[in-house]
């Protein structure tokens, strides 16, 4: 069958209002309308074609990215797009570029750490793209004294950078501070005197993140004007005197809190994209199981396929909602900081660090699982999955290696527990620690599988597991005379406690979402199914934690798994509609396997013939290498 909607029969099975779910996924009707309009604008413009990326050499690829970035900027100006629309346009262009760092880190760093005066000077230039900036923190070696290495946009394009370096005045080291540094001439783009700058070389995967010019930077006697030190947190006077505002020093790292929050939102996008591809293809693909000459089984009907795919579908929704909440938390902490209330900064840091770590790790693994769920075809570039994985996987490393970030969360948890003794009541995401005595001895009240559908039961099990793991770490730490030595020795356990805490946050935010008014026929019910799948899948996967801490019994673990299987059956008829609700265009998905109409095989066949290798019947190199070999064999055979 050619043409038509090959997934129409699947779409008819949906038990909820897909259009209403699209609004829930987007966050609001307004967000949906902007996203829908801009994604279609990008998809319909041939200038934003991206299917040829894996075939291009690095230089062609990079030049193509510059062309797209300049064209995108031209369209933003011509169409007078708002900041929100412009950012959506860059998102749907779907190509890592220097602009990500300019808008995503350079500007936020100046906004967050610059004084009013500095903001007035630099922000208008940056907003109009009269200067292009990057964010230069990481070094080749360690310390803040070798070469900057990795900053995106630095290698070939940025004219300026926010550079993090040690501030030394009168021989005294005041630690790491941010400085705005001009790197290249605004006339001919050549590096300014004393500056060595270039690209650090090819990265993982063809195409993929190689559209980005991650760079190296060295300074040799470069003078940075005093007023280019970002001075909101601390200042140096004309006389060289160092002083600090009445704000915590940690604000120097504020840009990371902001960016980690956006990375969590991005995780739901990347995972939902992979899940959309794998779900649609799983409904199209048939293998074995034919009875009486009937059609073979759709692979999505295999229970093993469901138990691998549906937790990822549920995770995509879970990450969406926790990302929404994290955005709220960030806005809240920003408003408090403006009012000189710094009390929630440690929690915002722990939440952004921990959730960044958890969601990026699950998304990177999830994309690879989706590739495997698509069998052999998943390995083709035209499935969209290899490139998505290669682009996505560094998210586990950038903005803080995931393990290092979990250790930051663990420190926060241990500190929270240690403050309980002095009567300080934990709030926000650690409020449950206030009931630590109850959580240490409570018994899970599940007697039959359906009991696992009660939100209070799920929450208590996750809270008890998290509290018990943190308390066990704190008890073990107290046995060490040197706390840092103890922290290093127990770091493996501490990371696991941090994971348990972050999983609790995601589960509890999903449950909170369900307590809101959610319009649309059957929408809330479907989200309830996904929420339960997410929680019970985690419980099943980490049942070792739940059992060893005595939070649940082996029988209750068994019942959780029984309930999980029932939930998969409930999700099955809605699977295609649940991925349709992401509202992704075929352009954004960039996948033959995931195309909306499910017409996979003719498209795969057609795409194969477009490969440059098929330009000629006899390949280049045949005459040179293969023909002589064949001739040689012929001669040997005759002998
Ligand atoms: C839209 C954009 C697209 C994205 C594209 C990707 C671009 C990628 C960009 C990058 O990768 S930029 C480089 C990012 N680098 C990192 O994330 C490094 C990870 N390391 C850290 O975060 C470290 O914490 C640090 C910031 C380097 C500091 O290390 P140090 O050893 O000096 O101090 P710590 O002991 O870790 O912390 C001291 C104190 O400060 C608190 N804290 C740490 N970070 C933050 C923060 N971001 N916000 C608030 N508070 C923070 C920490 O909890 C400690 O508190 P106390 O225990 O003393 O109370
Ligand atoms: C694609 C990409 C883009 C990037 N963009 C930028 C950018 O724009 N600007 C910028 O400044 N940087 C950028 N970075 C750099 C990035 O922020 C760092 O790579 C990241 O913070 C990790 O630091 P590292 O590379 O030094 O790893 P390391 O810290 O050397 O980590 C190596 C290993 O050691 C472990 N480890 C390290 N410290 C500890 C510890 N204390 N305890 C236990 N284990 C530890 C880690 O878990 C990891 O397994 C980018 C990186 C990538 C890959």
TrEMBL record:
UniProt-annotated catalytic positions: 399
Major subcellular location class: other
Domain Acyl-CoA oxidase C-alpha1: 253-414
Pfam assignment, any one: ACOX
Cofactor: FAD
Source species, domain of life: Eukaryota
GO cellular component: a single term: peroxisome
Gene3D superfamilies per the UniProt record, alphabetical: Acyl-CoA dehydrogenase/oxidase, N-terminal domain, Butyryl-CoA Dehydrogenase, subunit A, domain 2, Butyryl-CoA Dehydrogenase, subunit A, domain 3
Biological processes annotated in GO: fatty acid beta-oxidation using acyl-CoA oxidase; lipid homeostasis; long-chain fatty acid metabolic process
Domain Acyl-coenzyme A oxidase N-terminal residue range list: 17-132
Ranges where the Acyl-CoA oxidase C-terminal domain occurs: 455-631
Keywords: FAD, Fatty acid metabolism, Flavoprotein, Lipid metabolism, Oxidoreductase, Peroxisome
Gene Ontology MF terms: acyl-CoA oxidase activity; FAD binding; fatty acid binding
Residues involved in FAD binding: 138, 152
Family, similarity comment: Belongs to the acyl-CoA oxidase family.
InterPro entries: ACOX_C_alpha1, Acyl-CoA_ox_N, Acyl-CoA_Oxase/DH_mid-dom_sf, Acyl-CoA_oxidase, Acyl-CoA_oxidase_C, AcylCo_DH-like_C, AcylCoA_DH/ox_N_sf, AcylCoA_DH/oxidase_NM_dom_sf
Name listed for the protein in its UniProt record: Acyl-coenzyme A oxidase
Places the protein is found: Peroxisome
């Amino acid at each position: 069958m050619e043409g038509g909607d090959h997934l129409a029969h699947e779409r008819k099975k949906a038990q909820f209002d897909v259009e209403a779910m699209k609004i829930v996924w987007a966050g609001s009707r307004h967000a949906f309308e902007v996203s829908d309009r801009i994604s279609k604008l990008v998809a319909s413009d041939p200038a934003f074609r991206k299917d040829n990326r894996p075939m291009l050499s690095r230089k062609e690829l990079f030049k193509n990215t510059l062309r797209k970035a300049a064209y995108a900027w031209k369209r933003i100006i011509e169409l007078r797009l708002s900041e929100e629309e412009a950012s959506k346009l860059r998102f749907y262009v779907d190509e890592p570029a220097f602009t990500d760092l300019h808008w995503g880190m350079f500007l936020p760093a100046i906004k967050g750490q610059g004084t009013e005066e500095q903001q007035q000077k630099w922000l208008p230039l940056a907003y109009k793209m009269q200067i292009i900036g990057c964010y230069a923190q990481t070094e080749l070696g360690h310390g803040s004294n070798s070469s900057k290495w990795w900053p995106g946009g630095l290698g070939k394009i940025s004219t300026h950078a926010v550079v993090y370096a040690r501030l030394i005045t009168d021989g005294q080291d005041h630690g790491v501070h941010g400085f705005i540094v001009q790197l290249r001439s605004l006339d001919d783009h050549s590096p300014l005197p004393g500056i060595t700058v270039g690209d650090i070389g090819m990265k993982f995967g063809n195409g993929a993140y190689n559209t980005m010019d991650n760079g190296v930077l060295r300074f040799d006697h470069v003078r940075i004007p005093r007023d280019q030190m970002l001075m909101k947190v601390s200042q140096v006077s004309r006389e060289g005197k160092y002083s600090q505002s009445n704000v915590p020093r940690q604000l120097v790292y504020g840009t990371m809190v902001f960016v980690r929050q956006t990375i969590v939102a991005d995780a739901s996008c990347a995972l939902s994209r992979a899940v959309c591809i794998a779900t649609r293809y799983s409904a199209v693909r048939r293998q074995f199981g034919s009875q009486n000459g009937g059609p073979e089984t759709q692979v999505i009907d295999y229970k093993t396929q469901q138990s691998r795919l549906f937790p990822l579908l549920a995770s995509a929704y879970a990450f969406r909602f926790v990302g929404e909440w994290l955005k709220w938390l960030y806005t809240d902490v920003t408003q408090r900081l403006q009012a000189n209330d710094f009390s929630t900064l440690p929690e915002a840091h722990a939440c952004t660090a921990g959730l960044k770590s958890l969601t990026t790790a699950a998304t990177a693994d999830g994309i690879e699982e989706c590739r495997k769920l698509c069998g052999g075809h998943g390995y083709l570039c035209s499935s969209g999955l290899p490139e998505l994985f290669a682009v996505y996987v560094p998210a586990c490393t950038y903005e803080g290696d995931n393990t290092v970030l979990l250790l930051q969360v663990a420190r926060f948890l241990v500190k929270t527990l240690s403050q309980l003794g002095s009567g300080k009541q934990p709030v926000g995401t650690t409020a449950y620690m206030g009931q630590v005595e109850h959580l240490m001895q409570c018994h899970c009240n599940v007697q039959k599988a359906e009991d696992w559908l009660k939100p209070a039961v799920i929450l208590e099990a996750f809270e008890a597991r998290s509290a018990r793991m943190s308390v066990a770490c704190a008890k073990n730490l107290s046995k060490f005379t040197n706390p840092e030595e103890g922290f290093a020795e127990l770091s493996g356990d501490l990371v696991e406690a941090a994971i348990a805490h972050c999983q609790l946050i995601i589960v509890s935010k999903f449950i909170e979402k369900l307590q809101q008014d959610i319009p649309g026929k059957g929408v809330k019910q479907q989200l309830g199914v996904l929420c339960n799948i997410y929680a019970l899948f985690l419980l099943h996967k980490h049942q070792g934690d739940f059992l060893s801490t005595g939070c649940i019994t082996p029988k209750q673990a068994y019942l959780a798994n029984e309930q999980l299987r029932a939930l998969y059956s409930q999700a099955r008829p809605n699977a295609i509609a649940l991925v349709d609700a992401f509202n992704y265009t075929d352009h954004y998905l960039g996948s033959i396997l995931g195309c909306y109409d499910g017409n996979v095989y003719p498209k795969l066949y057609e795409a194969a013939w477009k490969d440059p290798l098929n330009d000629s019947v006899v390949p280049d190199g045949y005459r040179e290498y293969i023909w002589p070999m064949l001739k040689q064999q012929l001669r040997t055979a005759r002998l």
